[in-house]
């Protein structure tokens, strides 16, 4: 072990660990392995590996006879992870490492890792749900595009210029919808991998908020429905302006579409304790972030208390008014990629209130 701390206890490992010696007898069997296999460590130690773990592949072949770790080619270093079956048909993910004292020498130790399939099944279900959602969301605009273009090509001379323009505008809007959905999918992929690319520059958050309100008003929403409150002095933000626009557009659209009454947008200096993103959270302590906070609230019915923990998860929808349910998941990923945080609670007027904070500052080379 490297370092001066205590040695790692195999029983502390989250995955099953089974170790067999040069004779194929079990010399290590941790608690996670016992939980996954239903075999007590005391009953496993000293027994032949193939008796303790009588694994079969999905075609019913005995795994240890098929792979023959103690025979066969001496250049092998292990087995990649794959699905195998325990007695009774229970699936388990198994990988193995062959330990040799010298290259091409006899096997001195066989180290087997066992994992349950529950986490992978959850991931597969999530991916399947994502694919189903995307397919459903793509079908409608693509059907519209196909219908209008086919009609125009077949009956171009029968339509007036006004009718043609209306159909082409509809096609253009549906194409934008498909483009946005594809962009969402790319964002989700990058967020999940912790590789969301940010092109940072100096950003004025107050100007960004005012610009988004003006755009929303231009779509036909009454200007008096918005109440913008700026508290000076604001700190300089070093952020990706396009990603910040994406966050603001999503929160304002949700407030207008799903909320009621006045939509209040507050921009103010802030300082608060922020948890690390999920992908960095193991052992990473909270930190204090000083920057700018943006709060968007409405006067609608709000979000039920029992739903608030799920607001930033995939596919959460606050109502049945359409949408993929991916927007707030992406918003959270963007904010956390900037080193900030976002939360939701109930506004004083009874509606939903979203508040995010982005850290202040610029890189040293700009000072």
UniProtKB/TrEMBL annotation:
Domain called Histidine kinase: residue spans: 133-362
InterPro entries per UniProt: HATPase_C_sf, HATPase_dom, His_kinase_dom, HisK_dim/P_dom, HisK_dim/P_sf, PAS, PAS-like_dom_sf, PAS_fold
Phosphoprotein found in the keyword field: yes
SUPFAM superfamilies: ATPase domain of HSP90 chaperone/DNA topoisomerase II/histidine kinase, Homodimeric domain of signal transducing histidine kinase, PYP-like sensor domain (PAS domain)
Broad class of the protein's primary localization: membrane
CDD domains: HATPase, HisKA, PAS
A biological-process GO annotation: regulation of DNA-templated transcription
Residue ranges occupied by any PAS domain in the UniProt entry: 11-57
Presence of the UniProt keyword Transferase in the record: yes
A GO CC term assigned to this protein in UniProt: plasma membrane
Any one GO molecular-function label of the UniProt entry: phosphorelay sensor kinase activity
Enzyme Commission no: 2.7.13.3
Localization, UniProt: Cell membrane
UniProt keywords, alphabetically: Kinase, Phosphoprotein, Transferase, Two-component regulatory system
Catalysed reactions, as listed in the record: ATP + protein L-histidine = ADP + protein N-phospho-L-histidine
Designated name of the protein: histidine kinase
Protein's organism: Streptomyces rubellomurinus (strain ATCC 31215)
């Amino acid at each position: 072990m490297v370092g001066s701390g205590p040695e790692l206890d195999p029983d502390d490992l989250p995955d099953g660990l089974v170790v067999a010696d040069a004779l194929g007898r079990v010399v290590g069997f941790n608690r996670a392995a016992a939980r996954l296999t239903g075999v007590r460590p005391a009953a496993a130690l000293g027994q032949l590996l193939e008796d303790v773990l009588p694994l079969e592949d999905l075609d019913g072949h005995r795994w240890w006879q098929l792979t023959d770790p103690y025979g066969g080619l001496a250049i092998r270093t292990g087995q990649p992870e794959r699905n195998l079956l325990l007695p009774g048909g229970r699936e388990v993910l198994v990988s193995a490492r062959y330990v040799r004292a010298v290259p091409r020498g006899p096997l001195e130790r066989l180290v087997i890792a066992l994992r349950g399939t529950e986490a992978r099944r959850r991931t597969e279900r999530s991916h399947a749900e994502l694919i189903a959602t995307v397919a459903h969301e793509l079908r409608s605009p693509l059907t519209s595009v196909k219908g209008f273009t086919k009609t125009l090509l077949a009956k171009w001379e029968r339509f007036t210029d006004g009718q043609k323009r209306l159909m082409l505008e509809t096609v253009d809007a549906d194409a934008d919808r498909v483009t946005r959905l594809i962009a969402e999918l790319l964002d989700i992929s990058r967020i999940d991998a912790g590789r969301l690319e940010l092109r940072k520059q100096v950003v004025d958050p107050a100007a960004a908020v005012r610009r988004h309100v003006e755009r929303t008003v231009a779509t036909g929403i009454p200007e008096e429905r918005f109440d913008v409150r700026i508290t000076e002095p604001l700190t300089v933000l070093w952020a990706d302006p396009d990603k910040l626009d994406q966050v603001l557009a999503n929160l304002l659209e949700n407030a207008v579409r799903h909320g009621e009454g006045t939509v209040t947008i507050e921009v103010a200096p802030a300082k608060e304790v922020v948890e690390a993103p999920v992908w960095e959270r193991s052992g990473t302590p909270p930190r204090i972030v000083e920057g700018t906070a943006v709060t968007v609230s409405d006067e609608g019915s709000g979000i039920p208390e029992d739903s608030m923990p799920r607001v930033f998860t995939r596919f959460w929808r606050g109502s049945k008014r359409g949408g993929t349910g991916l927007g707030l998941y992406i918003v959270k990923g963007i904010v956390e990629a900037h080193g900030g945080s976002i939360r939701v609670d109930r506004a004083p007027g009874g509606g939903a209130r979203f508040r995010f904070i982005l850290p202040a500052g610029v890189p040293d080379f700009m000072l």
